[in-house]
Design a protein that fits this description.
The complex is a heterodimer of chains A (1049) and B (488). Chain A contains 10 helices and 56 strands. Chain A is mainly beta and 1049 residues long. The chains are: A mainly beta (1049), B mainly alpha (488).
Amino acid sequence: MYPYGQKVRAFRSRLILLTGLLWLSVTMLFAQNTNQYSGTVTDKQGETLPGVNVLIKGTTNGTATDMQGAFKLTSSNTKETLVFSFIGFITQEVQATAGVPVKAVLVSSTVGLSEVVVIGYGTQKKTSVTSAISKVKGQDLEYLPIVRIEQALQGRTTGVSIASSSGQPGASSTVRVRGTTTINNSNPLYVVDGVPIDNGGIDYLNSSDIESLEVLKDAASASIYGTRGASGVILVTTKKGKEGALKVGSGSMSVNFNMYFGTQSPAKKLSLLNATDYATLRNEAAVNGGQPSIFPDPSIYSTGTDWQSTIFNNGAKIQNYELSVSGGNDKSTYYTSMGYFSQEGVVATSISNYKRLTLRFNSAHKIKKWLRFGNNLGYTHIKSQGSLNTNSEYGGPLSSAINLDPITPTVITDPALANSPPYSNHPVERDANGYPYGISSIVVQEMTNPLAYIQTHQGNFGWSDNIVGDIYAEIEPITGFKIKSDIGAKLAFYGDESFAPVTYLNAATYTTNNSYYRSGNRGFIWNIENTASYTRSFGKHNATVLIGMSAYVENAIGVNATYKNLPVNTFNEASMNYNLAASDRVGGGWEAPDHKVSSIFARALYNYKEKYLFMGVIRRDGSSRFGSNNKFGIFPSVSLGWVASRENFWPQNKVVTFVKIRGSYGVNGNDNIGDFQYMSTVGGGRNYTFGNDNYVIGYSPNAPANPDLKWEQTSQMDVGLEATFFEDLTLVFDWYNKQTTGMLQPVVLPGYVGANGSPTGNVGSMSNKGVELELGYHKKIGEWDLKFNGNCSYLKNRITDLGTVQYITGATFQSSAYEISRLAVGQAMGAFYGFEVLDIFQSMAEVHHYKDANGNMIQPDAKPGDFRYADLNGDGKIDASDRTFIGDPTPDWSYGFTISASFKGFDLMIFAQGVAGNDVFNGLRRLDIPTANWTSDALGRWTGPGTSNIYPRLVAGDPNGNFSKPSTFYLTNGSYFRFKTIQLGYSLPKKIVNKIGLQLLRVYLTGNNLFTFTKYQGYDPEIGGASYGIDRGVYPQARSYMIGLSVTL
Amino acid sequence: MSALILGVLLLSSCSKSWLDVAPKGTALESNYYKNAEEAYNGLIAAYNPLGIECGKTYSNKIGPLNSASDDCYAGGGSSSDVPAWQVWNNYTIDAATGIQADFWSRNFIGVYRSNLLLQKLPNTSMNDSLKARYVAECKFLRGYFYFDLVRLFKNVPLFTAPVEPKDWFNATQVGPQATYAQIEKDLNEAIAVLPATVPASENGRVTKMAAIALLGKVILYQNNESRMLEAANLFEIVNSSPNYALLADYGKIFRPDNKFNSESIFEIVHTAQAMMGWESWPNFQGNLLTQMCGARSFTGPTYVAGWGFNPITPELVAVLKSDPRYKYTVVNIDSMKTAGLCSYEKGYQNTGYFLAKYAPLKEFYSTIGGDPVLNYPNDEMEIRLADTYLLEAEALVRGGGDLGKAQVYLDKVRARVKLPSVPVTLDNIKKERRLELATEGHRWFDLVRWGDAPTVLASKGFKAGKNEILPIPLTELSNTMLVQNPGY
C-alpha cells in the first residue's frame, strides 16, 4: 500500500515498438549448374505453391510449378533471371545459376490481401474494410489453455480490456471494448455464427472450435447490430469443414486429436503474520489503546496456523482432450468435434472445480448451383463447483484464511479441550480422525475454520446444458444476388444444487435445521434473420448492397425447491425423495418476460478500384423495453477509406507496400436494461401480520414510472491507418472518440420520496477516447519461422454528465461509513474516493503544529503514529467533506505481445500482456473485526518517531480512523506485466510421422501465468467482476504447467 | 418467391404490437387499486413499515433507542458490531454513521404508501364505509410515521401526497410546528372514522383508541404546558374505556402467547409464519430484537442463544433491583452461570444482564420453517395502558389538572405490582415511567422531552443542543435541498 500518485509508467508502447526488426533480410538460395534450372516455390509460411508461373526473363521460355511446388527449366545460359508470378503474390525476379536448385519464396502482394474479415451478415476483404475491426485467428489459439473465449482476446487485440474476476475455474472476465461505454451494462454483444448470445453464457464455447474472433470496435462496424452494438460486438465464427480435394493422399478428411494435462498451484500466497507476531501486535494495539496486554507471552504460540496453506492446493490438476473430424467435397463439408475439459481449483479444491463437455457439428451443403444449406450446432454440458466467495471480505474459506488469527489450531487434538464447549455441546465439524476443527474464539462473526466450512459445502454444484445452433438456406437466382434465411436458437438449461447441513462453525455461524436446495431454469433465445444482397462490379466500380430484417426473442423461466429438516445430514445422502411434511417443502419459481427486438437494416459497400472505399449502414430497431412513444431507434453510420498505395503516383517500393487511411462515424444504441422499466409495476412482499399469525401480503409500486424512457445512444468517430512495411511488417493505428448520451441508469431518489426502488432514466453521458496500435511481423529465414504480434491501447474514460445528481455512490468498503468509489462528472468510471493521507504524525509536536488558517488544531485528537489527513476544504477539521478522488481502477494502457519462433521441428511461443496506469484497492483485512490477522506489512507499522511514514500505529478502537477511513493508504499502483503463456513444442519430422500414417505428431510443454511483475502485494492486481479493481480477498490465479500432445491423421 | 416471403417478414417485424410485451403476474401501478382487495393489499403495504426490522443495518425501533438511553448499552460482539447502534450509545453519531438512515427511510416509506393509497382510494370501487375506514387508517399511519420523524429529526419535508417527479430533488424541510399540525389533523380525522374495536382476526389494526392515545402523545410531546389538559382529556378517554385493563400479572404483558391482551392499545405485530430465511434480508417479519438481545453462545435452560446486544446498564439494574418488576425486566444470565445452569460468551459491554421483555425464549423458537433467529413472534408494545396511565398523570400534573385523578393512575400502575402509593409528583412519575417501561424504547424520548437527557446521558457523551435529534442521513443531503440539523 503506497500513497497514490506514484504512477509507474514502466510498460508502454515502446515494448510494442521492439518489433523484432531483427530479422529483415529476404533470403534466396541459389547456385550454379550448366543448363538445368530447377527448384521449388513456397510462400512465406513454407507451404509449397503449385501452379506458379516461372519464366526466364526476356524470353517466352516458361513453365508452372507442379503439385509439390517444383519446377524444371532448361536454358542455354549458365545464369538467368527467373521471373516467378502468381495471382495474389508479388512478382519476383531471382538470379539463378544453372544446376543450383532455386528456393523461391513468394511474398503475398499485400500481407493479408486475400484475407477476409467477418463483418456481420457477410464478409469483406480486409484491405477494403473501412471500419475498426480486430481479429484473432483460431489458429493462434490452438493448443492454448484458454477456457473461456474472452481470455483469447486478452493481450491479443487492441481496444479490448479483459480483467479476470478471479482464479476460480471457469470464472468469467470483465470485457470492455474501448472502455466502459455506459454505467448500466457495458458487456459487448456476442454473436456466435449469427446467433446473438446475450447475458453471458458464452463459456459454452470450446476455444479450439473457433475459426476466428472479430471484434467490431467502432460505430461503423457495430451499427449493423445497432441495438446493442454500443459496447462493441464480438463475432465468433466456428470452424467449418474444408473442401479437401487439394490435399492428395490424405483424402478429404482431417482428424485432429489434441490433449494437455497439467498441474497448477496458486500463483501467489499472501504474507500474513505468524502467531507470535500476531499476538505481539495485538498486545501493542491494546496497550496503545490504554487496555491491558492480551497475550502474556506471544512467543509460546510459535508460528501457529498458516490458514492459507490449509486450503491451497499446489497440485491441482487441469486437463483437456479434443477430437475433431472435418472434411468434405465440392458438395458438402462438415466439421465435428468433441472436447472435454476439467480443472481443479487451486483453493479449496473439493468445493472449487469445473468440468465441461462440448460437442459440435457444423455442415454446409451445395444442393444446386444456386442453393446452399447449412447448419452450426453446439452442445455443451458444464458442471462447476464454486461454493466459496471468490472476491468478498464476508466469510468463505479465502476471507477466513486471511482474517483468522494464527493462534487457533486447525484441529483440536487435546481431549480436554475437545470435550468442552463449544465442541462438546454443538454439532461441530470434525476431521477424518474425529477431532473437531478448531473454532476461533478470537476472530468470530462469519470467519470460520476454512476446513470446517469446506466440509459443510461438499457436493454443492451448478450445472448447465447449452444447445446453440442455427440453420440457414441461401439461394442465388442470379449471379451475385443472394437471398439468405437464417434461424438460430440458444436453449440453455441450468441450475444448482446445494445442501446446508446442521452444523456449528462458530457462535455466529451455525445451522440448526438442514436444508436441500435445487433449482432448474431454462433460458431460450431465438432469432430469425433474412437478408438479400447483391454484389456486382461495373468496370472498376465494385458494389455490394444488403438489406435485411431480423427478429429476436429472449425469455427464461425457473423453478426451485427447498427441502428442510431432512433425516440425513450430508449432500450425498440428501434426496428429494424423502417424504417430508408439506411445511418442510418450500417451492419457488420465476419467469422473465419476453425481451423482443425487431430490426430492419441496410448496408451499402462500394469501392472504386479497391482504392476509394465507402460503407454506409442504417439500422432501425424496435425493442419491447421501451414505451410506445420510444419503441424504435434509428442507428446510422458511414465510413470512408482511401488506399493510397494503390494510387498511380505511389512509387513502387519495398519499404511501404500498402497504406490505407480510413475514417468512420456512426451511432449505436443500447436497450440493456431490465424489462418494463418504463412502467411502474406493483410488487408484493410488503407484508404485515394481523391477529394471531394472519400473515398478509402487501403490494406497492416497485418504482415510480418513467414513460419517456428511450434508447441510450453511443456515437463514435474513428480514424485509422493501416500500413505494410517491407512486406513483412503490418501496422494498424486507430484513434477514436466515443460519446454515450442518455445513459440508462437508475435515478437514485432521496429516501424521503419513500419509493421502494429507483426508476430508470436517460441520465448522464460518458466519454471514451483512445488510441490503439497493432503491429504484426512474420518472417521466414531459412528454417526459422518468426512471428511477432504486438498491440497497445490507451484509453481515457470520463463521466461527462450525471443529470440532476452530483454523484452516484459506487462500491462500499465493509462496515466503513464511507463509500470507496463514486461516479462523478469529470471522473472515470469507478474512480476511488476517500481521504488523502499526507503522512504520519511522528510526535505530539507535529499534531500540535498541524493547524488551520485560524490557528486551530486540525486533528486535535490525533496521537503520534496516526495519519495526517489533508484538510481539503480548509475548514479546520477532518470529516466527510475532506474526501476527494484518489485513484482509478481502469488501466490507461493495456498491451500484449506474442512472439513465436519455429526451427525445424521445434516451436516456441511467448505470450505476455500487461496494463498500466490503474490503482488497486487493498481491502483484505476486515475493519469490523479488530482481532483479524494482518498482512506482514503491518510489521512495518509506526512504533516511534521515524519508524514509518506509511503504515500507522496499531491501536485498539482506531480512534483516528487510520484504517476505517478509506484513504490513499489502501491504494497501490495496479500496473502489471505478465508472461501469461510460454509454450515449447516439438513436431516429429514429417517423414517419420507419415510412415506411421499421420500428418502431424507434436508434443508440447506449456506454462501459464509464470511470471507477474507488479508492485501490488495482494494476490493479483488483475481484478475484474463486480468488485472491479477492489481486492476483497480475490481467489488467486493459478500458475500451471502442462504437457500436451497433438496428432493429426 | 423468397423475395415475397422476405417482404412479408419485413412488414411483420416492423409491427409495433409485436413489441408490446405485457407483464404477467405483475400488476401496474396505473391499473392497480381498482377494487377493495387491491386497496387492502395497498393498505397492508402501508402497515408494513411498522414492522421493518432492517434496512441498511439492524434497525428494530426499540433496540437502538435502548442503546441511546441509560437503560442499555449497544453491546454485540465487538465495539464495531452494528456501528449504527454503537455510535448512538456513545454519541459519536454523525451524518455518515448511525441509525438515522434506517429510521428516516422506514418512516418515509410509510408516509409514501399512506399517501399513495389516499391518492388512489377515491377511484377505487368499493364499499364506502370500508373505504372511509381505509382512509382513516392511512391518516393514522401517516400521522404515526410523521410523529416518529418529527421527534427523531425535528426538521423534515412534509408530504401529503406522493412526491411528484418534478419535486424529487426539490423538497425542503418544514419546522416541527407544521409537521405536528398535520399529524394532529390526520389523527383527528382518523379518530372520527376508526372503529372502536376490531375483531380478533384483525388485531393489530388501528382503532379509535389507538389514534386517541397517539394524539395525546403527540400533544404531550410538543411540551406546551397550556395544552397538557387537552392531552390529559384524550388519555382519559382511553384510560377510562372499558376495553382496557391492566393485566394482573406484569410478567404476561410481553409474552407472544398473550398478544393483544387487555393492556395493549397499539401493538406492532410480528410472526413466525413468514418463515423467513437470510435470503429475504431485509424483509423479515419476525422480531429481530429478540434474537439480538439474547446472550451470545448461550447454552442452558429457558433461553436460546442470541447476539448479546442491549446489555442492561448497572444503573438500571440498581434502581430496579428491589422492584417487583425486576425479574420481568432483567434476565440475570451471570447469576445463572454462577449457579452452573448455563454457559455463555461475554460480548462487548457485557454486564451479565439481558432484556427479559423481549428475551429469546425457547418456547417461541420457531420450528415451522425459515431461520428461527429471524422469526421470533414477539410483538412490540407500542402503546400500552400503563404508559397512557402515566402519561395522563404527567399531563395532569404538568397542566395543573385534577391531581386526585393523577394519583389514581399512578397508584394503579404501582398497585398492580403490589407497590404502595407514592405522592403524584412529576419526579415520581418520571421514576415510575423508568421502572414500569424500562427497555421498551420510551426512555430516550422521555429524557429528551423532559430536558433531562443532557444530564442523565452526559456519561454516554450526550451533547445538549445537538443530540436531542438525529442527523439528517448523509446520503439524503446529496443532490437535495435538505439542510443538516444543527451540530452535525
